[in-house]
Amino acid sequence: MLSSLVKEHQSKQAARKERQDQKRKDAIAAANNLTQALVDHLNVGVAQAYLNQKRLDAEAKHLHHNATNFAKQTQQWLNLVENFNGALKEIGDAENWARSIENDMRTITAALEYSCKVSQETPPS
């Protein structure tokens, strides 16, 4: 009887140990499945962030290229306006010079006309 109780106890203990091992294996498998699901979920977010970063980098390069081109075009426009302004000043200077010459010529003409008139009016002595 004692030996049968010991055998029964040992068999119950073995069965309990087997159930415990099976539950441990199930728990490990569930933990592995949970870990894999979490990693997959995080990888989706990381992959999306990576794609977004790549798009942002491409857009930043495109924006930098456009800004550089805009700066070059702006500089060209500034040079054209500056050259145009210089040409206008030269035209203004030439016009002013021509007016000065015209005024001087009128003064000389008036002086010559006056001297001619005076010399015709005064009798020769």
UniProtKB/TrEMBL annotation:
A Pfam family recorded for this sequence: GCN5L1
The record lists the membrane-crossing segments as none
Q: Which GO terms describe its biological process?
A: endosomal transport
Compositional bias of type Basic and acidic residues: which residue ranges?
A: 1-27
List GO terms (cellular component aspect). BLOC-1 complex
Q: Where is this region: Disordered?
A: 1-28
- Family from the record: Belongs to the BLOC1S1 family.
What this protein is called in its record is Biogenesis of lysosome-related organelles complex 1 subunit 1
Q: What organism does the UniProt record list as the source? A: Megalurothrips usitatus (bean blossom thrips)
